[in-house]
Design brief:
- This protein is elongated.
- The two termini are 31 Å apart.
- It has a domain at 2-36 and 125-216 and 318-359.
- Helices cover 54% and strands 11% of the residues.
- By secondary structure, it is α+β, with helices and mostly antiparallel strands.
- Strands 4-3-2-1-5-6-7-8 form an 8-stranded antiparallel β-sheet.
Length: 360
């Protein structure tokens, strides 16, 4: 039985190793996507907090002065006092100091940092392959399944010896075996969490309905809304829409609002203090003519199935506890890379030893 599991463990790693390597390497970077972007764009990101934050009306006036005639598509509000606001224009995303109204700069879609981080994200999700059948996502999802098998079979193979020390007498086969065992055992729980949550995300078409079924809840998907313009009626301002959203979901901080065309509503995205995901999990839809709330869903009161989906994603990305959990899961992702390197090194050294023995 051990020989069977050893062979399955080896060949599974050889077949799916390259994809797991990509998952681990890109995942370790993705854990800190917002932080990396902030550091590399520090001139556009960091501001000095002051007593008063400008209203969106005042920010709009500053943008119109700097970029006359360019329509605003959306506002990005920072929920951290030292991070700048963002304003979406046709030319790109404008960073602006929300305390002084000073334009800090413009980031375009072709910006090297944004393009690189987006590429890393897409490689992690689907090998960078985008088409209707989404073969890249299927490959990476099954690579996650193989990773689960490697973790469980690895523990089975390690258990009779339970060795966690490393013999550092040269880079021998024994040294690499000790590294493989020690790294695997100490990172096992974290890698298991990453693999399980990743598989759930990879097969979300099957797992999401299962979450709703297990919790006996129903999704509350926002309906497609087209508002009816009222002749002679002035629409509410983005600042008024934000106040309505804050009243609708008390305790949640708005971080994004669109500037709707004639037949579209306001879409306000919000984040509760415990929700550390960059995209937030709460939303409010508002009719700009009547100020009526058309749809609302808060992360605290969402259907149980949706809360399970959100929790799974927050655990996988490390967002659940902020920087500490991001650091742990980023390091765990690198440990998956280390496991592949040490495992393949052992395999290569064994092959070399066998060739020498056969030659003799």
């Amino acid at each position: 039985m051990r020989r069977l599991f050893f062979n399955l463990h080896l060949y599974a790693a050889l077949i799916a190793g390259a994809f797991i390597f990509v998952l681990g390497l890109t995942g370790s970077i993705m854990a800190f996507e917002p932080e990396i972007e902030h550091v590399l764009h520090w001139r556009l990101t960091y501001v000095k907090p002051q007593a008063r934050v400008l209203s969106l009306g005042e920010i709009r006036a500053a943008i119109e002065k700097a970029f006359p005639g360019e329509p605003i598509g959306a506002y990005g509000l920072s929920t951290a006092p030292n991070i700048s606001y963002q304003v979406e224009l046709d030319r790109g995303v404008v960073s602006i100091d929300q305390y002084t109204g000073k334009v800090l700069g413009v980031r375009q879609q072709s910006d090297l940092v944004n393009a690189t981080l987006n590429s890393i994200h897409q490689i992690h999700l689907r090998l960078g392959i985008r088409n209707r059948s989404d073969p890249g996502k299927k490959i990476m999802s099954w690579a996650g399944v193989v990773m689960l098998f490697l973790l469980l079979s690895g523990v089975y193979l390690w258990w009779p010896y339970q060795r966690v020390t490393i013999q550092w007498s040269g880079w021998s086969l024994r040294t690499w075996l000790d590294i493989h065992n020690a790294v695997g055992i100490f990172s096992f729980v974290f890698l298991l969490v990453l693999a399980m949550t990743g598989v759930v995300i990879g097969f979300e078409e099957q797992t999401t309905p299962l979450f709703y079924k297990l919790t006996r809840s129903q999704p509350s998907n926002a309906p497609d809304v087209e508002v009816t313009p009222w002749p002679g009626v002035k629409t509410i301002t983005p600042d008024q829409a934000l106040e309505i959203a804050r009243t609708t979901l008390p305790g949640a901080a708005p971080f994004e609002i669109n500037v709707p065309p004639a037949k579209e509503p306001y879409y306000v995205n919000l984040r509760y203090p415990e929700d550390r995901t960059p995209g937030g999990r709460s939303r409010v839809t508002i009719d700009p003519y009547t100020a009526k709330v058309l749809f609302t869903e808060g992360s605290r009161t969402a259907p149980a199935g949706r809360r399970m989906v959100n929790a799974n994603r927050a655990i996988h990305t490390g967002d659940i506890f902020g920087i500490p959990s991001k650091t742990i899961l980023s390091l765990a992702s690198l440990m998956a890379v280390m496991q592949l390197v040490s495992g393949l090194t052992m395999w290569w050294k064994r092959r070399a030893l066998r060739k020498r023995a056969a030659a003799q």
